[in-house]
Amino acid sequence: MNPTIKDIAKLANVSIATVSLVINNNKRISPETKKKVNKAIKDLNYHPSGSARGLVSGKTGNIGFILTNDHFLRSEPFYTRIFLGAEFEAREKQLYILLTTIPSEYKKGYKLPRFVLERNIDGVILVGKIPSQIINLLRKYDLPMVFVDYDIPGDEHSAVLIDNFNGGLTAANHLLETGKTKIAFIAADIEHPSIKNRFEGYKKALEDKGIKFDQSICITDENYPARDNGYNAAKRLLKKNKKIDAIFACNDAMAIGVMQYLKEKEIKVPEEIAVIGFDDVESDVLLDPPLSTINVPKIEIGGEAVKLMEQMLKKKAHANKKILVPVELIKRKSTVNE
Question: How many domains, in total, are found in the chain?
Fold first, then answer.
C-alpha cells in the first residue's frame, strides 16, 4: 500500500499541515522539523501528490493543454511533438499536463473542458489556432494563458511563437540561391498568423532580389494545410502555370502532397521543380527525394511554454511576454541534387 501524508505525519510526530508546509518548502518551518519530516518521507519512499502540495499552495499542480481536433489528428506529428516537449518540462518541474482536444469551430452551447469547469488546473496552454469564442469563454475563469504557435494582434497575452517570417525568407532565399526564379507558394488557412508570416517572408525574399511578386503562382485558399490539399494545390497550380521551377509549401504536410503529385506526373525533383516545406517532420527523410525544409524545434517550443507558464504561476499574475523561437534551414535532395 502506498504511504500517505498521514503516515508521514505520524512517523515524524508532526501535524499533517506541517508535512504539507515542508513539501511546499515553506520558510516558516524550522530546519530541525524539516529534517525530521524529510527523513520520514525518505524512509517511507513517499512521493507527494498534487493534492498534498495544494493543501498549502492552493494550487493543483495541473496545467491544461488545449488544441483543436484538427491539429491533433491531421497535422502530422507537429503538435504531438510540442506536447511531448511540454510533458518533459512539466516532469522536471513536478507539474502535470492535462491534454484535451476541442472542436476547430465554435458552436452555440459549447461547454469548456471539464478540467476548466471544475477548476482543476492552475493555467492553460493553448496550442495552434483556437476559436476566438472559446478563448473568450476561458478568459472568464481568469486563468493564466500561454499561446503556442498562434498570436492575436493587438491583444495582451503571453506566447511562444515560431520565427515564421525569417523561416519563409530563408526558404525562398534558398530556392533563389539554387538558381530557381519562378517560385510558387502554396498554403491553406492563410489568415493563420504563422502561415501569413511565412508568406510575407517569401514575398520579401523575391522583393530583395528584384523579382516581381506574381499572385498567379500562389495558391492560398485551401481550407487546411494537409497532404491532400497540398496535392490538390499542386494540381491546380501546374494546370495553369507550366513554367514553375520551384514550389514553397507552407508546411511539410502540403509539401508531401506536392511531391506525390509531381511523382505521379513524372516531373523530376529538383531538376524540373524543386520543393521545400516548413516544420521538419520525421517522414521528410523517407521521401524520394528527401524533403528540404525549415526545422522548427518542436520539443523546445513545448518546454518553453511550460517554463513561461511556471513563471506566471510563481508571480501569481498574468503576463504579456512573447518568446520568438528561431528556425533553421535543412537542405535535402528535393532542392539540392548533390
Answer: 3
